[in-house]
Structure formats: C-alpha cells, structure tokens
Amino acid sequence: QVQLTESGGGLVQAGGSLRLSCVASERTFSNYAMGWFRRAPGKEREFVAGIHWSGGNSDYADFVKGRFTVFRDNAENTGYLQMNSLKPEDTAVYYCAAAPSVFDRVDYVRHKESEYNYWGQGTQVTVSP
C-alpha cells in the first residue's frame, strides 16, 4: 500500500506561485504514473496534470497550460506541481495520485481518477484577488 503525502499548499495572492510536493512511501514510486487533481468548493474533482512514470511525458488541463508544470524526482520518491501565475479560480484542495504503470506506453499520460489507485490527503491552495 503506497502512501502519498502532499505539502506546499497555502495562501497566496493572485499572480503568485506555489510548489506542491507529493512524497511516496515506496521506492517503487519510480514505476508509478502520477497525477494531480483538484476539487474547488462546490465542484467535482478534476484533472490538473499528469506525468508518465519515466518523467518523459506529461499533460495538462487546458486551464493550467503554460502556468503549471508537473515533474518528478524518482530518486527521492517525490512528485511536484509548480504553479505560477495563480488565479483566484485556482483555489481548491489539490490531490496527488499514483498508480503502477510500468507497462504504459511511453506517450501515455493518465487523466482519469479511475486510472489511479493511490491518493494523498490533499493540500489546500487559496489564491486571493
């Protein structure tokens, strides 16, 4: 059972930046696809960004493209979400997720919640106007 622990959330003004971290409890994280999702108040959880287990491919929701960057350090069992140019509408609880995926095609990035087996507890990001 892989445990994921997010950190790095907080309160920031619009236009500011935050970096979220997701630390996995297992070294096998290097074979896991990783995704970031968020749930804003009153809304469904939605995909934000995902990255292949190798770190070689990633994808983003349209509303964060050009502002957010997902990357990982498999040697440290850690994934990251760098968030720049934050907007008030980015306010949400952010979750990281992971799934064993060593057989995924090299160009495949998981987007659906159902494709992930393990979830973190979430970290709150609040962007003030």
How would you explain this protein's 3D organization?
Helix content is 0%, strand content 47%. It is mainly beta and 129 residues long. Strands 2, 4, 5, 6, 9, 10 and 11 form a seven-stranded mixed beta sheet that branches. β5 and β6 form a beta hairpin.
Outline:
The protein has no helices and eleven strands. By secondary structure, the protein is mainly β.
List the helices and strands and how they pair.
Elements: E1 4-7, E2 10-13, E3 18-24, E4 32-39, E5 46-51, E6 58-60, E7 68-73, E8 78-83, E9 92-100, E10 118-119, E11 123-128
Parallel strand pairs: 2-11
Antiparallel strand pairs: 1-3, 3-8, 4-5, 4-9, 5-6, 7-8, 9-10, 9-11
SS strand fraction: over 45%
Give the overall pLDDT as a whole number.
96
The poorly predicted ranges are none
Distance between the termini: 40 Å
> What structural class do you assign from the helix and strand content?
mainly beta
State the helicity in percent bands: under 10%
What is the CA-based Rg, rounded?
14 Å
